[in-house]
Specification:
mainly alpha; 4 helices; elongated; 109 residues
Length: 109
């Protein structure tokens, strides 16, 4: 039996693992009793829900998941900028992800 299954690039696998770790940290801080930014915590939960969907899609090498990821990143950065919590350091992960997505775009369907 011949299968036409694509092999996931190692960089995409590592990126998905980093996304999951980042997501777990974000969820932890969303429920932090020391944080008083209630509406921002609920916003974070909303974004994290869709980020889980995006990570699953990226794991299965779907192009729509890349689009969803970038939409979520743009929304998140806009809200963080408006609220005054945006810093240059939080661009590291999206820049690394962009480079990995560009290098492996042909693997996505």
């Amino acid at each position: 039996m011949i299968t036409d299954e694509k092999k996931r690039p190692l960089a995409v696998t590592i990126l998905c693992i980093l996304f999951v770790l980042s997501l777990l940290l974000s969820l932890y801080f969303s429920f932090s009793p020391f944080d008083t930014r209630n509406w921002l915590n609920y916003f974070s939960l909303f974004i994290n829900f869709f980020m889980i969907i995006s990570i699953i899609g990226i794991w299965y090498l779907k192009k729509w998941a890349i689009v969803l990821y970038f939409i979520l990143v743009l929304i998140t950065h806009a809200i963080l900028y408006i609220t005054g919590f945006w810093t240059l350091i939080i661009l590291i992960m999206p820049i690394v992800a962009t480079i990995i997505f560009i290098m492996n775009f042909k693997s996505f369907s």
